[in-house]
Structures are given as C-alpha cells and as structure tokens.
Design goal:
alpha/beta, 8 helices, Rossmann fold
Length: 263
C-alpha cells in the first residue's frame, strides 16, 4: 500500500488511487482552523495545529475501521472577534459561505464518497457552520456533520473564568502537541482580571447573542479568556485522548445517517 494511503491523506494520493482506495462508504475528514490571536503565549495558528491534531488522532484511532480520509486543511475562517489584534486574518461571512459552498460542490463532483465530517478547531466558526451544513446537504447531497472537539472535555464548573479562548485547555493541548510554539515565559503576564459573570452573560448565555470581542477587558485579559497558568502537557494529552475516543460514536452515527439517506 502506498505510504500516502497508510497516512490517509487525500492530497498525497494520485488520481488513479482515488478510484481504487476510496469507496462510497468512505468518510472524508476536513480540518478547519483559524489564524488569530491567542494571547501573548500561543501562536496565531493555534487553531490550525489543533484541528489537524484532532483529525490525525481521530484517523489514527478510527481510520481503518471506518475508512477515514483527511482532506487538506482550511487555515482561514471566520475570526472577526479577534480582528483588533495584529496578525489575525478573517474571512467575511460571505467569503466563508462561498468557500464552503465551492468546496462542497467539488467534493460531490471529484470524490466517490459524500460522507463528510468537518473537524472544527475554532469556536467562532460554530454558528456559520451550523447554517452551512444545511446547504451542503440540500444543495450537494453531502452526508455531513461538524465536530467541535474542543468543547467535548468538560471544564471545572466552579472555575471563576470559563475556558473560552487561549486558556488552560488550549494551552495544555499545545504543550502536548507543539511545546516549542508555546511562549511559556509570557504566561506570567496574564492576570485573569476578566469578569466570569460578564463572560457567562455575553458569550455563554443561550438566550441571547452578542457581537463580543476579545479586546473587551470585561471578558478577556490580553485576548485570553481562561486560565492558562494552570495548563500542563499532561492535561492536554488527557483532552486529546478523550477527543479521539469520543469521535467514534459521532462518526458511526454519521455512517448510520448515510444508510437512512439512501432509503
């Protein structure tokens, strides 16, 4: 078997291998990240690194049994809440919608499977992806779902500052995956001065939506919402292991949905 097939990367296959290795029951995994500020200690591509690592671990765990294949990563997405910070690059709502529609059309045209699991590494994409998957199904016949792995690990409900962005969870996963990219000496600058109740009102309240931004001192400290000081590589590995295992149930549900779509 070609090395690319063992790694299950669509981009490294030849065009004849697409027809021989992929089937109608195969599943495509699309990592989506973002280029955005993550405080003074994490790189702009944190969500790209995480989305690709989530995908790699899910495919390592379930790739053979569920016939998973990784699509090339989308590195730019919707990050308007971080545009105040140098380096942040965001698509517009119209641009993100057009990109996803074009990609959906090409997947349906170019590949022998219509099973698509989007693995989202950026929380700010959630709302737009919830709307877009309806179009991907209705317009292109894709059997699709979106995984938001960063939300699967329950945080401490008693924490004064909820884990939203650049805090304990993301910093821990980056320490586990790419410690050389974490500016650990910069974490001491963070003071956790944000208001936990303001965060819950403006970001986590399911009854209202606000156009919040991470330069708002009420909810963020140097662009961070969470407790990066408590991060560790061991905790990051615990989150990543949980994600890889939990993904199996979601992906099996997607394949079951394929069966019902055909009926």
């Amino acid at each position: 078997m070609p090395q690319a097939a063992q790694r299950r990367l669509i981009g490294e296959l030849t065009f004849p291998e697409i027809s021989t290795l992929l089937k109608g029951s195969s599943m495509l995994c699309l990592p989506i990240g973002s280029i955005e500020q993550h405080g003074p200690h994490l790189p702009l591509n944190t969500d790209v690194v995480l989305a690709e690592e989530f995908t790699r671990r899910v495919i390592d765990r379930w790739g053979e049994s569920l016939d998973l294949w990784q699509l090339p990563t989308l590195a730019l997405s919707l990050a308007r809440e971080h545009e105040w910070a140098p380096g942040t690059m965001s698509l517009s709502v119209q641009g993100m919608t057009a990109l996803m529609h074009d990609l959906g059309r090409e997947i349906a045209r170019a590949l022998p499977t219509k099973n698509l699991a989007i693995i989202n590494g950026h929380g700010g994409n959630r709302g737009i992806l919830e709307a877009i998957v309806q179009d991907l199904r209705a317009d292109f016949g894709l059997n699709v779902c979106v995984l938001h792995p960063a939300t699967w690990f329950e945080g401490d409900p008693n924490s004064a500052i909820p884990e939203i962005h650049g805090g304990k969870n993301e910093t821990s996963m980056m320490l586990a995956i790419a410690p050389q990219l974490v500016r650990q000496g910069q974490i001491a600058q963070l003071k956790n001065s944000a208001d936990g109740e303001a965060i819950r009102r403006m970001i986590l309240n399911p009854g209202v939506t606000w156009p919040w931004s991470t330069d708002d001192k009420r909810i963020a400290d140097m662009g961070v919402i969470g407790g990066a000081q408590a991060a560790s590589a061991e905790f990051g590995e615990k989150i990543l292991d949980h994600v890889a295992e939990a993904a199996g149930g979601v992906l099996n549900q997607l394949l079951d949905h394929q069966f019902h779509m055909r009926r």
